[in-house]
Amino acid sequence: MRIISFYSIKGGVGKTTAAVNFAYLNARDGEKTLLCDLDPQASASFYFRIKPMKKQSSKILVSAKKKASRYVRETDYANLDLLPSDISFRKLDIRLDRARNPKRHLAETLRQFTGEYDSLFIDCPPNITLLSENIFRASDILLVPVIPTTLSKRTYEQLRLFLSKKDVRVEHVIPFFSLVDRRKNSHKEMMSELWDAHDDFLKHYIPYRSEIESMGTLRAPLPAVRPRSENSRMIELVWREILDRLA
Amino acid sequence: MKERHFRADDDSLQGYLALAENQFELERESTQDSRLALYDTFDWRLYRKGFFACAVPGSFLVRKAFAASPHLECEMEVIPKTWDRFENERLRSFMKDILGDRALLPLLDFEVREENFAARNEDHKIICRLSTLTPASDGGRPYLLIKPLKGYARESEPLYALAAESAMEELRTSILEELLRAQGIHPGEYSSKLDVRLDKGQTITEAALVILHHLLSTMKINIPGIIADYDTEFLHDFRVASRRTRACLSQLKEALPRDAAKKYNKDFKNIAQRCNVLRDLDVFLLEKQRYYDLLPQHLHRGLDSYFAHVRRDRKSRQKKFTAFLQGEDFKSILDDWEGFLAHPETPGGSDPAIAVARKRIYGRFRKIINEGRKITDASPDRDLHTLRIECKKLRYLLEFSKSLFPAAKMKKLVQHLKDFQDNLGEFNDLTMQQINLKEYLERSSGEPRRNQLESAAIGGLLAALHNRQIEVREEFCQRFADFDSKEIHSLYEELFKRGKGRAS
Predict the structure, then answer these.
(1) What is the ipTM of this complex?
(2) pLDDT value at position B347?
(3) Which of A84, A176, B71, B263 could form a disulfide with A45 if both were Cys (CB 3.0 to 4.6 A apart)?
(4) Contacts of A71 in chain B (CB under 8 A)
């Protein structure tokens, strides 16, 4: 089972959009996939029309006795399940802090899904916290959406610094551009600057388009409901490039 | 969360869908006519693990339930008979684990119209899927499947309640089993395990007849598979049943008249001898890869021609044995035996089966312990061979009388014995394989065609097998010590020793 996490220090960078669409594409290829919505905003759950869990559900990820699999919900799509989030997930940090092995606790809890799923996708809350450190340590792959702006560039570099300082070794850290507006010169310039500075940035990117924004009303992965649209194709290109990078 | 299956008719089904539509948003997802060919092994290995495999035009699917989304799926035109012929890696490893040495056989062909619906809640989230299946056979009566999505069992409950309201009959088994039964096929029916229930009040004769009837039906049911040569296990199961029959005749002496027992024992021995070599060759071919692995890469080519010879030899022996099975001699042996079982001439032994079982099992166990303790590193190989035969006899006795004693304890005893037998069995196999290889080498030593590479490969194999045999022999003492343990002794004493506590 490989664990793929979506992370950004900054909010509103298209992280959940990427997690929802990529998880769907992964499942469509026949991989048994579980998307864990760890963001207390529960946006990923919302996209799949799945209600947040009852209160106190954050315990399930910290207590070894609670079987998190009992809370898993099947999405409308083959091979794709979701572990819903809710507002109590904001307390995960406090709960982890009290755990026996605070930095690696989540990695141990997630092991219960081995065998049942081929891939675990994690939609992480923004900010650098104990929870994010747990997620980094549990992940095989860290996908980092970056809006091509000066501020996002800074936060990406902060993340790299954090990983090396804390000696967190993630096998693959893959940044990609998100919410790209090709009409903006500043975006184009920042993209070439970052491509020059970091050769790990993906060539394909997720554009800023109203159709992608409309996922909030469609409440479904875009390639599932608009398989032929240009935007679905661009999302798929990013995902294929990630798979190539992992191969 | 389990899917539930209902038998409907056109009216009740339409009524149900109308009621469901009142409570949920119901959306037709797909309609398809498909032709399904159901595949499994003769002993239902997929079915027993909760899977079923079917071929639809152009692809092959493995599912966990009748209309569930495929667990595994692959495009292919021709369905391979054995696991190693599957090209798709996932399917191959899945099939390897489940099929083992058995062939995948087409069991049933049917046409079915499938309509799929999704029931959604107020968030437009799918909570349950409904499928209607109308087979072309079975009078065209439709079936309904209700499959709640994971995590939505409670929300889906009204959909079950409506089925009862619409006067649909819930199936205790699955639709697939209904369809199979309608064709006279009973999934899970055949098993190579000796599964007889004896009664504690039975006399030894009554018990023996139950066992012998069961074994006869096992032999008969495997014959068509041997003749068609689907896989090696038909012959294997046939041979095991025939060997158990002989064991029953000779071990439970008081059960049947001595003359008859002697005659039939001889008949079954005759049958066994006709296929001993065939089974040896089967085993040899099944373990082909192991032999290649024993040799360095550059000698592999030398083995190819040897295995080609083994395959030819096997084929001709298979043909010969098939001819025997189809001939008059075999028919009359089986007819005689069947007639005898239907009307055993004499009243037979009146001892209670359980008493005979206790006496024989305990006696056999003591004998094995005594013989085994005498064996040292210097003992000749044939002592191990004798011990192996004794263990086999004990194994059969335990299997025959399994249902007369506490199940968990019997299972433990059989498992311990099996572990010990594995050592003795491997030792014997290694002896036989070396004999066969030596014979082949000698038989064709004068032939000019024999190439050096083949000789070298066989020489290499002989050395490797010899070394393995030394290891197995060295392991013997430890394995015997495990068997000759306090725990095992006290179990045998508790269950079988005269005058000991009658646990059963």
Answers:
(1) 0.88
(2) 62
(3) A84
(4) 151
Asked if the model's pLDDT at residue A3 lies above 60, the reply is yes
CA–CA distance, B458 with B434 (Å, rounded to integer):
10
What number is the average pLDDT over the span A154-164?
91
Residues facing B63 on adjacent strands: B52
Cα–Cα distance for residue pair A27/A79, rounded to 1 Å: 5
In chain A, residues with a C-beta closer than 8 Å to the C-beta of B118 are 76
Residues B378 and B399: their CA atoms lie apart, in Å, by 33
Distance CA B378, CA B387 (A): 15
Distance from CA of A12 to the nearest CA of B (A): 25
Sign of CA dihedral A197, A199, A201, A204: positive
CA–CA distance, B119 with B280 (Å, rounded to integer): 58
CB-closest option in B73, B126, B151 to A76: B126
Q: Does residue B315 have a pLDDT over 60?
A: yes
The beta-carbon neighbor of B150 closest among A49, A51, A81 is A81
Is the CB of A219 inside 8 Å of chain B's CB atoms? yes
Distance CA B235, CA A55 (A): 61
Give the minimum alpha-carbon distance from A48 to chain B in angstroms, rounded to a whole number.
Answer: 7
Least confident piece of the model among B296-300, B451-455, B489-493: B451-455
pLDDT digits (tens, 9 = 90+) for B185-230: 888 788 778 878 888 888 999 899 999 999 999 999 999 999 999 9
Q: Which residue of A has its CA nearest to B73?
A: A30
A30 touches chain B (CB under 8 A): yes
Question: Which of A48, A49, A54 would best serve as a mutation to test chain B binding (most B beta carbons within 10 A)?
Answer: A49
What is the greatest pairwise CA distance in chain A?
53
The three-state secondary structure class of A120 is strand
C-alpha distances out from residue B334 to A3, B195, B219, Å: 61, 22, 10
- pLDDT at B384 exceeding the cut of 50: yes
Query: Which residue shows structure tokens 């990923």?
Result: A44
Q: Enumerate the β-bridge partners of residue B7.
A: B143, B169
Whether residue A77 lies within 8 A of chain B, CB to CB, comes out as no
Closest CA to B295 of B433, B466, B471, B460: B460
A188 interfaces chain B, CB cutoff of 8 Å: no
Which residues face B52 on adjacent strands? B63
Contact A76 B123 (CB under 8 A): no
Q: Which residues contact B171 (CB under 8 A, 6 or more apart)?
A: B5, B6, B7, B143, B177, B178
β partners of residue A19? none
Residue B177 in this model has a pLDDT that exceeds 60: yes
The model's pLDDT over A74-87, given as tens digits with 9 standing for 90+, comes to 999 989 999 998 77
Chain A nearest-CA residue for B69: A78
For position B504, what pLDDT does the model report? Answer: 43
Q: Please tell me which of the candidates B73, B125, B151 has its beta carbon nearest to residue A76.
A: B125
Instruction: Give the span between the Cα atoms of A49 and A58, in whole angstroms.
Output: 20
pLDDT at B450 over 80: no
Give CA–CA dist B14/A52, Å, rounded: 35
Is residue A81 less than 8 Å (CB to CB) from chain B? Answer: yes
- What is the C-alpha to C-alpha distance for residues B37 and A216, in angstroms, rounded to an integer? 43
Name chain B contacts of A32, Cβ cutoff 8 Å: none
Find the CB nearest B150 among A48, A49, A73: A73
d(CA B56, CA B37): 7
pLDDT attached to residue B34: 79
Per-residue pLDDT averaged across B235-254, rounded?
A: 93
Alpha carbon distance A28, B248 (integer Å): 57
